[in-house]
Amino acid sequence: MGFESVEKMVMSEMRKVYSEKAIEHAMNPRNVGRIKDANGAARITGSCGDTMEMSLKVKNGEIVEAKFWTDGCGSSIACGSITTELVKGKRIPEALKIDSKRLIEVLDGLPEADIHCSVLTSNTLQAAIKDYMNHAK
Ligand code: FES
Known about the structure:
The protein is an alpha+beta fold.
């Protein structure tokens, strides 16, 4: 079997489990890395042993930049990517409302076994926001 047909087979297997949107974000993640002059950041290792990092740049109560990094699975990459897109331009009270349920909704669903990946991501976001709030006091 040639590389292309193997790739097609893998993709069609993935599409049975993951939404098009989740696959797209896992394969082309946005905003990967760390913001050098972040004023809110967090790093959490989940029960699966994977780590998620989130850094935020907040100006006048609005998140103007967000980046993530993870050594976790494809779902955690998709969740990190969508989270950075969702929080950009949001004010702190709005960003605090972004929970794992919201991430799953925006990704058009995640398999049951990967829900903890979205929880790890939203917990990291919340911790990064709280870190900002502690320093802003
Ligand atoms: Fe660990 Fe998804 S399995 S973050």
